[in-house]
Amino acid sequence: xxxxxxxxxxxxxxxxxxxxxxxxxxxxxxxxxxxxxxxxxxxxxxxxxxxxxxxxxxxxxxxxxxxxxxxxxxxxxxxxxxxxxxxxxxxxxxxxxxxxxxxxxxxxxxxxxxxxxxxxxxxxxxxxxxx
Length: 131
Prior knowledge:
This protein is of the alpha+beta class. It has helices at residues 3-28, 100-110, 121-129; strands at 31-34, 38-42, 50-54, 60-70, 73-84, 87-93, 113-116. The protein has one domain.
C-alpha cells in the first residue's frame, strides 16, 4: 500500500473513533433524571459520575435539530441543550432518549427557551472537549 493511502485510512479511522466515543459517548449519550427541583446527569452511557443541577440555577435551554442520512433515508432528530453559565450541561434528544417528549414538555414548562442553536460537527467537538 502506498504511504499516502495508509495515512488517509489512519486519519479516517481516528476520526470515526473520535466521533463515536468522544462526541456521541461523552456529549450525547447520557442518563438523565428530572424532577421538580433538579436535573441529574450521568454522561458517557451513565458510567461517569453524576452531576446535579438545580432547576433554578439553570440558564434555560436551546433547541436544535440534526438531519442524518442513512441508506437513502433522511432522519431528523430534535435536541434540547440545557445550559448553565453559558455551558451545555445536558443534551436531550429523540435519537437517544425514549421519553424525549415527556422531558421536552417538562423542560418547556420549567425552563426558559433561549432560542435555536445550529449544530455542526465542529461545535459538537468543541462542546465535547469542554467536559
